[in-house]
Each structure stands twice: as structure tokens, then as C-alpha cells.
Known about the structure:
This protein is α+β, with helices and mostly antiparallel strands and 136 residues long. Helix content is 45%, strand content 16%. The protein is built from seven helices and five strands. It has a three-stranded antiparallel sheet. Strands 4-5 form a two-stranded antiparallel ribbon.
Amino acid sequence: xxxPRSKLTQSFPGCAVxxxxxxxxxxxxxxxxxxxxxGGTLRFSDLRRRLPNVTQRMLTKQLRELEGCGVIARTxxxxxxxxxxxxxxxxxxxxxxxVAALKSWGDAHSVCxxxxxxxxxxxxxxxxxxxxxxxx
Length: 136
């Protein structure tokens, strides 16, 4: 009988890649981080507008998990209606190269057409992205 995976390594999560992926695990966490990098401190309603396909419950859950890991800070203001701001912590800011690398790879290898997402080996540059050539 094989041993459980946790018994095969001396410590959880086992490696740095797995640790990073477990921190960002969840459909919306990477996108939340991306928007916080772009917009700085954002209110809950701002995040909700930027992520129209996420439910309020799921957004709250993902934000709480990121807060629990120390990646974002949540500030509650005692006003009516309630105001809650989210900002990246120094630990969260250190994830910027990771999120930037994911965006760069997605820009180069994903195509969204007619509501469908496809992945390609190499995306041909758009005409406006092609370098100008001098005629001989």
C-alpha cells in the first residue's frame, strides 16, 4: 500500500512551487491580486465591479483567505453604510513578479474569441505590434 503524499515529504507543503500555488489557489485570487496591483487600495465594491462574474460570497471568501495568509490587509471604517478597504501587505507586494509573469504568459499564449478561451503555442503579433521594416 502506498504512503500518503504528506508522509513522503518531511514538511508541508513539500516545495516552494507548491507553497506558492497553495497561496494563490482559487479561481479569483490571482485576479484579485492583479487588480490590487493595478488600483492600489480598493473598496469591496470596486473589486466587485472589476470582477463581474464572481459572486459576492465567493469574493468575500477569497478575500478572507488572502487576508488569512497575510497577503492583503482589510480595513473596516465605522461608517454607515459600511466601508471596507483592501490593500496589499509587503508580503502581497512581493507577489507582483509572480502575477506579472502569469499575465505575460497569458498575453502570449491565450486567445479569447467569441466568448471562448484557447491556448496557443505562439501567438502571431497583431499588425500594430509588428516592427516596422525598412525597404531596401
